[in-house]
């Protein structure tokens, strides 16, 4: 399956982000250097039982990719830490590949359009400094 389906869920990071550079051959950024933030995450699955308790099910695992400028990619990657809960919005697709053992495997890849930190998670400390107003044409 190579169809993209909408994705808007909380996920937990289990492998910190890396940043790489690509030059797309097609699409709106064709021929332009583009940065890609990539990290591994999972979504815990639970099922509510008749008695009102929850039973933990197998988690679903994802490779998350965010495309953007080098400045925004580095800023996003620096803020992603193992164990964090993130709210991710974008599209997910299944990607088929052949594993080292020769078996066909499936990877769930999220093309993220938005990544936000879940503010109610334990251990999170937020420090924010309002930036001076930027001059017209400066990158955020």
UniProtKB/TrEMBL annotation:
InterPro entries: NA-bd_OB-fold. It comes from the Bacteria. Gene3D superfamilies: Nucleic acid-binding proteins. This is Single-stranded DNA-binding protein. The lineage of its organism: Bacteria, Pseudomonadati, Pseudomonadota, Betaproteobacteria, Burkholderiales.
């Amino acid at each position: 399956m190579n169809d993209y389906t909408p994705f808007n869920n909380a996920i937990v990071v289990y492998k910190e982000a890396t940043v790489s550079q690509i030059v797309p051959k097609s699409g709106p950024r064709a021929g332009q250097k583009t940065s890609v933030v990539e990290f591994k995450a999972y979504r815990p699955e639970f099922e509510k039982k008749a008695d009102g308790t929850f039973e933990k099910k197998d988690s679903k695992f994802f490779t998350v990719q965010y495309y953007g400028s080098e400045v925004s990619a580095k800023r996003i990657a620096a803020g992603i830490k193992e164990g964090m809960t993130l709210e991710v919005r974008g599209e997910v697709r299944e990607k088929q590949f052949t594993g080292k053992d020769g078996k066909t495997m499936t990877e769930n890849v999220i093309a993220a359009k938005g990544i936000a930190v879940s503010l109610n998670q334990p251990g999170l400390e937020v420090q924010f400094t309002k930036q001076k107003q930027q001059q017209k044409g400066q990158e955020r």
